[in-house]
Amino acid sequence: MREQSLTVSVIIPCYNEEKNLERGVLDEVYQYLRQQDYSWEVIVANDGSTDDSPALVRQYIVDKDQFSFADLPHGGKPAAIRGGLERATGEVVLFTDMDQSTPIYELEKLLPWYKQGFDVVIGSRGTSREGFSLLRQVGSLVFRSMRSAFLLRGIRDTQCGFKLFRREPVLELFPKLQVFREEVPSGWKVTAYDVELLYLFERAGYSIREVEVEWENRDVSDTKGHSSELVRYMRESVSMSKQVLRVNVNRIKGLYDDVGR
Question: What integer is the mean pLDDT of 62-86?
Answer without folding.
Answer: 97
